Amino acid sequence: MLKLNQVSAQYNILTGYVKAVDKVDFEVRKNEIFGIAGESGCGKSTLLKVMYDLINYPLEIASGSVEVHATDRKGLPVIYRNGEIHKSWWKDISYVPQGAMHVMNPVTRVRNQFFDTISKFHGVKNKKTLEHEITEYLRELELPPDVLKAYPHQLSGGMRQRVLIALATFLHPSIVLADEPTTALDVVVQRGILTMLSQVQKKLKNSMVIVSHDMGVHYQITNRMGIMYAGQMIEVGPTDRIFNEPQHPYTKMLINALPRIGDNSQKEGIPGTPPSLKNPPAGCRFAARCPHATELCRLVEPDRVNVGEGHYASCHLLN
After folding, report:
1. Which of 23, 125, 147, 295 is the most exposed place for a label (fewest CB within 10 A)?
2. Are 229 and 42 spatial neighbours (Cβ–Cβ below 8 Å)?
3. Are 165 and 200 in contact (CB under 8 A)?
4. What is the pLDDT of residue 124?
């Protein structure tokens, strides 16, 4: 469905390059929800933009390729690569950006935002027929059709997010990318958004990629997940294995820092700070913060090690 081959991306700034994504290599399978987790600034959102081919200066792809496997209008298989993926926007791959209020046009009613998007990427249809189809789809997602008459500022944060998800999935894309879909929402609304995403995925039987710094989001909704650190994907595996049998020291420390019901013990944070992505260190990028780091870790970048079916991590300790 979606494949990344040694993808590197960077921001071109006045004093050099910020290597936000470095040699990321993984695939998103058909009919699954794949999660991407990590600290703020680790490259999660940049990676999602690269996957969607939303490349605007100062962001640029330095190397590698992204492949979207889809079908054309005749039902024949077709592969879109970076530089071409925009041709498949909304029809084969769609994107739910972070911050619905800042994405939707504040002076346009929701109805017209549906019309504009669909006519641009799917051709012009009879407006009455299209509005009926949109209304029925909103009902399927348990959204009141009256939202079509509203301006974005008249909707709550949770309702705006639901509308954005409905807009991104209306054309039944085979891949949906969602960037921090629950950020800045209270826990009850977060639960509703996650339930909606799960229902849409089951209905369309498509693939989703969910970016979130909230490990609880991944535990609730994803089938597989990847852990990012300083621009690199350091561990990928089934979500239950990531939580129950984490292999990379960074992943272990993330899991150990999570609060648990009935556990009143003091949780420890991860000491230190991530390295600068403008001038990343040699070797393992987590070495300066890792309690198990050796001289080898500081000098040589670790290879990817398979630690189970569909589960791998990049760490010298696993060799």
Report:
1. 295
2. yes
3. yes
4. 66
Per-block average pLDDT, block size 10, for the chain (319 residues)? 95 94 96 96 96 95 93 78 89 89 90 90 79 94 94 93 94 95 88 94 95 94 98 98 97 88 78 94 96 96 96 96
Helix axes 157-169, 110-122, angle to 10 degrees: 20
Instruction: Indicate the domain borders of the chain.
Output: 2-92+173-250
Q: Which residue has the tokens 């998103």?
A: 28
CATH topology for 2-92+173-250 is: Rossmann fold (3.40.50)
Number of H helices, E strands in the chain: 10, 12
Backbone region of residue 244 per phi and psi (left: phi > 0; alpha: psi in -120 to 50; beta: other values): alpha
Which strands, in side-by-side order, build the sheet including 224-229? 93-96, 175-179, 207-211, 33-37, 224-229, 232-238, 311-314, 304-308
Residues 134 and 148 sit within 8 Å (Cβ to Cβ): yes
Rounded Cα distance between 9 and 14, Å, is 16
Residue partners of 296: CB distance under 8 A and separation at least 6: 283, 316
> If residue 64 lies in a helix (H) or strand (E), which one and from where to where?
strand 59-71
CA-to-CA distance for 297 and 282, rounded, in angstroms? 9
Burial class for 188, CB neighbours closer than 10 Å (0-12, 13-18, 19+): exposed
CB 221 within 8 A of CB 198: yes
Tokens for 186, please give them: 């209270």
Neighbouring-strand partners of residue 60: 10
200 to 197, 218, 246: CA distances (angstroms): 5, 16, 29
